Amino acid sequence: MCRPCGTTWRGGVVADAAHFYTGLVADLYRDLRGERPDAEMVERFVRRHGEPALDLGCGDGDPILTLRAAGIDVEGLDASPDMLRRCALAAAEHGLTVTLHEARFEAMALGRTYRSIYAATSNWNLLPTDDHLRAAFRALRSHLHPDGAALLTFFVPERRADVTGWSKRRVLDDGTEVAVTVLCVQRDEVARTEITRLRYERVRHGDTERVDRDWCIHWASPSALAEMAANAGLAVRSARDRHGPAHDGSTEFALVVGPGDVGQVV
Which of 115, 138, 162, 167 is the most buried (most CB within 10 A)? Predict the structure, then answer.
């Protein structure tokens, strides 16, 4: 049975997103990523709720650099210094200036508030426990303007047949071969956690680089998230999935939260 390195299920060490997106993984992120943010949707959200904005989990620049190119006052935050470095380089290549912050969602303390805060991908699923989620909601509340709003997206990973050996491979324009392969998966329905051990590889000029990392996903229902938000002083203003109002059976959904006393899903 696969036992991901450096992880335990209840208490103790958990897979760390800040460590995951470093080194080779950060280098290959853009070429091998599975989820692409909807820049137009994010821009509509920011223009509706106002500036300044904060991109939570800005990664290597998508979609924050698209918004900066459109003249939007938006800053970025990420826990990975390597991803922030890539974002800064991409900004410079496009002649853009961007303010970036290195911090975890649950520990951010930026000393200011924002009218719009968004997570363009489901990166809040990377918070490994409910306690991390609660702390992140509290940190979010402290950074929201009294008239502000935050957009957060979530998913519940489906229970799958054995995917060991699944691989995604690409050959880049310069002939470099990159790949990510599933080595094993552990899922805990009680903890609502799934840890996938992934192998990242890059082959160029006959040399192979390889690293194995544990990718931890944690999920919660819309009602559970609404309760956590309420305890942090946030009200859920909207909870939607692809078909309409989100419910506890939704597998992909978005929450819009803002300062308030009642975390009722509407």
Answer: 115
